[in-house]
Amino acid sequence: MVPERLGPLPDGFVTARDALHRLAEDVLSPQQAAVNGDIHFEAWPGGFATPEFGDGRRLMVEGAHVVELAGGEEVRRDPIPGVDEEAARWLGELFAFGDALLRELDADEPIRLWPEHFDIATVVGRATFGVSPGDADHDEPYLYVSSWDGVQVDAVGFSGAQLSAPGLTLDEGRAFFARWPG
Length: 182
What we know:
Layout: H1 13-36, E1 42-44, E2 47-49, E3 57-62, E4 65-70, E5 73-79, H2 85-103, E6 112-114, E7 119-124, E8 127-132, E9 142-147, E10 160-164, H3 170-178
Antiparallel strand pairs: 1-2, 2-3, 3-4, 4-5, 6-7, 7-8, 8-9, 9-10
Helix pairs in contact: 1-2
């Protein structure tokens, strides 16, 4: 479900984000890549997931659990040690929020959740539009537009524009993306 407004960051968010980023990049994506050479994910209720790969296999994070589906049936569900359920579900809401906003754009590429950057993004013209749960330059999640042509508005660590995500509404997110001059 896509929230109309993102709530405040829960306690333990940064710890959960960092642990889930490592899980996505170091554990889940190599399993997908070994089968089909691909490493992207997509928003999934409560978290994120690989697309189906191989013989109908899908790996996902739902809250603070890793879930594996085979042929559409759940075959494994394991807790992720040290990851707070509320913080992990907030991350899932952020990715669903970003996915909903990005689907409204006239994009040139599919929407992808990239395990190495741990953001959900697409391309429109000569800019990448996306939503990040935070990174080395940003303690909090944010929406962004990254310019391929060096256009700088107010972004930190890249060329483009950014907007803090906690407390943001879908309409505010739409307005942010619509303001991009490219």
